[in-house]
Amino acid sequence: MKKISVIAFCVLALLAAACVSTPSVSPTPQVIERTVVVTAPSVSGEKRVVTIGYGAPELYGGQLTIQQGLVDHAKELGWAVITTNANGDAQKQNDQVDYFISLGVDAIVVVPVDSSAICAAVKKAKDAKIPFYTIDRAPIGCEVNMTVLADNYLAGKQAGEAMVKLLTQRYGEPKGTVLELQGDLATNVAQLRGGGFNDVLRKYPNIKIIQKPTNW
Length: 216
Description:
Blueprint: H1 2-20, E1 30-32, E2 35-38, E3 51-56, H2 62-77, E4 80-85, H3 90-103, E5 107-110, H4 118-127, E6 132-135, E7 146-148, H5 152-171, E8 176-182, H6 188-201, E9 207-213
Parallel strand pairs: 3-4, 3-5, 5-6, 6-7, 8-9
Antiparallel strand pairs: 1-2, 2-4
Helix pairs in contact: 1-2, 3-4, 5-6
């Protein structure tokens, strides 16, 4: 229990840093099948290196930044990180979590491809007594040890308020047709952003909204 508490405290700092980190030059990774292993330097006084399993949903745009931030800060702590890339496949991501569990990692950190589908992996990790954390997206239908993410409902709400303001400036009143390009509706992030946006615009009956899912 003491070990898990210490890891949870350290991962809190690590996840917070990863969300705001700027990418920097990383060590040359060793590629084993589709898994990248970044070996951290040894820490004086420790009997072994803490190992974190990190599951990315894909590796482009902001997701690449999040992963690099986590790897960089884990290295500063003297931890090892095993990273995987699901390439947008929820089942593949769950299989990758199975791989982390088989390795006996100290903690698992994931950006879920699918907020509901990840719950099967969360349960397996809990059964194995491995702490489970998510970044950027929260699970739906299960609980993890911690989620670090922005207030996506507020972001959508602010976007809606800005849209009302712009339409009023253009037409003298809040009216017009708005095209809402949605993200991946399997993630809570897209649901929250869309929810905040639409909660604002539905107050104005003269604004018509056309919604098109784009899967990011």
